[in-house]
Amino acid sequence: MTQQEKIKYLIQVLQNEMPEYAKYSIPEDAASRWELLRALFNVRPPYPASEEFLKIQDEVLTQIAKDKGITRIETLQPSRIDSRLYVWQGDITTIEVDAAVNAANNQMEGCWKIGHTCVDNNFHSFAGVQMRCECHRQMEELRKLHGPDYVQPTAVPMITPGYNLPAKNVIHIVGPIVYPFLTQEHQDQLAECYRASLQMASDNQCESIAFCCISTGVFMFPQDKACEIAVKTVRGWLDQHPDTTVKKVVFNVYKDEDLRLYDARLNKKIRI
Question: Of 50, 107, 236, 253, which residue is least crowded by CB atoms under 10 Å?
Fold first, then answer.
């Protein structure tokens, strides 16, 4: 099968699983066809998929990853003030690291909004349906321990394989929600997100980790303060853990303003 035939097959399987979406005709153009498949990924409940479905899905997502281009950490320039650190503007789902950090919600099963552009949605869309299933499995185990209403606390990480992502693993973590205004508790929670993620990466023998800008999107953490906390916390943790397996840390940014902030801290020797 061609790539487009594989995508058509996956759409048909998902529409059979979820007949409420069967009314949507399969587009002829490639971009719209992928968007329909992604939308179905976004709303698919975390039940098991057949081996044939996973085989075809993995082939499709592997090809998409190749088409987008894979960024290797060796091609990035280290910080001028700390060679362990990097700042990189791009799509975090394209970087090849041992662990990439996903800013998750407290349900820990991905973003269910069709076509949403949040990092959580991107991770699950390009990893494949296995990621939601694994997150669900872990949450079910936690609910057995803590009760059926359990949700993941802020700054408590969960790790899954990366599946079809270039990243070997994904660390999912819930950042603080800043409302109605920034407090010291929010700042402490954000710092703990970085420390806990680094510890989980180290516990899993990861040598490289890429952080998204945790909590600065819809969670409303001020970008400048988030950058300050991220850099200070990561450098402090690495200094305090000289025997950690983590040797390279990438601060992944999407917005130009975040790039400016991290570049100022990591490359222009401003006071930090």
Answer: 50
